[in-house]
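Support request from a user on the community tier.

User writes: "When I paste my structure tokens into the form, the page sometimes reloads and wipes my input. The last time it worked, I copied everything first. Here is what I submitted, just in case something in the input itself triggers the reload:"
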């Protein structure tokens, strides 16, 4: 009988592979992306089928407004439909969206602590996406739920919502040789 890990994306030191991978998705973002695509389509429809009888300036403003709003909504939401967090022996890397952008890499030598946050909400951070709040630090929030919180050597924190965050925290603590903590972080 061969010994297989229960979660093939999460491997520990006992399997001689020093990589942990976590993911989180938000299907609600697809609704906002569809609204962005609709705005974009409306702008194109206005540009192509308009008779231009009402004047060039109002039509041009409508077309540019619809296309700009559509592109911002479409690409702004698609960037945060999902997140992939990968921790190896050297760093934690966060990649957002299907293209992996925006991306953040934090060397483990800059991490002084890792904590599990049982409930991180977009409301705590001012919405979905890549967020910064002076009193809280930086976060990547793609959905409501559990997350991991890194305390960095410069006093800042970095929070990311990810499934199985507690296993990620244990993996990071193991790499940093930190003792396990009993209290969850407030994110």
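"...and here is what came back when it finally went through:"
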């Amino acid at each position: 009988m061969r010994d297989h890990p229960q979660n093939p994306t999460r491997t520990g030191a006992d399997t001689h592979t020093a990589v942990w991978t976590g993911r989180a998705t938000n299907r609600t973002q697809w609704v906002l992306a569809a609204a962005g695509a609709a705005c974009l389509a409306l702008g194109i429809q206005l540009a192509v089928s308009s008779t231009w009888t009402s004047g060039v300036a109002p039509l041009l403003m409508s077309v540019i407004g619809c296309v700009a709003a559509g592109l911002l909504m479409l690409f702004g939401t698609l960037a945060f439909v999902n997140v992939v967090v990968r921790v190896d022996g050297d760093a934690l890397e966060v990649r957002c969206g299907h293209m992996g952008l925006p991306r953040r890499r934090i060397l483990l030598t800059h991490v002084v602590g890792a904590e599990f946050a049982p409930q991180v909400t977009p409301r705590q951070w001012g919405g979905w996406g890549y967020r910064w709040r002076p009193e809280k630090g930086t976060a990547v929030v793609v959905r409501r739920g559990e997350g991991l919180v890194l305390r960095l050597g410069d006093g800042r924190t970095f929070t990311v919502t990810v499934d199985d965050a507690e296993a990620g925290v244990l993996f990071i603590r193991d790499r940093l040789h930190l003792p396990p903590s009993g209290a969850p972080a407030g994110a």
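Agent notes: The reload is a front-end session timeout and is unrelated to the input. The mean pLDDT is 83. The first strand starts at residue 20 and ends at 25. Escalated to web team.
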